[in-house]
Amino acid sequence: TKIEVFPPEINLTTSADRQSIVVQATYADGITRDVTKEASLTPANPALIRLDGATFHPVADGATTLAVAFGGQTVRLPVKVEQAGAPRRVDQPS
């Protein structure tokens, strides 16, 4: 079996940004299954992101990795947070 995580990286910009992931397991018989709820999600630096289910929220600027584990397999994703304290800019129509 193998696991894949979509998207393959997490990039959060501004305090209002959010990113969800999906973890897919492929079994020996070729069957795939969404195992997001069963997977273990462990950020290397939990001070940068807050986890709500499989949705990530920015807390502080910086870069880290996220370890996603299921069925003895682990995938590490890069995580980048920028402008965590800044509100998302809303452009005014001209």
Quote the beta fraction: over 45%
Strand order of the largest sheet: 2-10-9-6
Number of strands: 10
Distance between the termini: 53 Å
Order of helices and strands: EEEEEEEEEE
Low-confidence stretches: none
- The rough form would be described as elongated
What does this structure look like?
It is elongated, with a radius of gyration of 15 Å. A hairpin with a 2-residue loop joins strand 7 (49-52) and strand 8. It has strands at residues 2-6, 10-13, 19-20, 22-26, 32-34, 40-43, 49-52, 55-58, 62-70, 73-82. It has no helices and ten strands. It has a four-stranded mixed beta sheet, with no helix packed on it. With 94 residues, the protein is mainly β.
How would you sum up this structure in a few lines?
The protein contains no helices and ten strands. With 94 residues, the protein is mainly beta. The mean pLDDT is 92.
Topology diagram in text:
Layout (H helix, E strand, L loop, with lengths): L1 E5 L3 E4 L5 E2 L1 E5 L5 E3 L5 E4 L5 E4 L2 E4 L3 E9 L2 E10 L12
Parallel strand pairs: 2-10
Antiparallel strand pairs: 1-4, 3-8, 4-5, 6-9, 7-8, 9-10
Structure characteristics:
94 residues; mainly beta; four-stranded mixed β-sheet; three-stranded antiparallel β-sheet; 0% helix
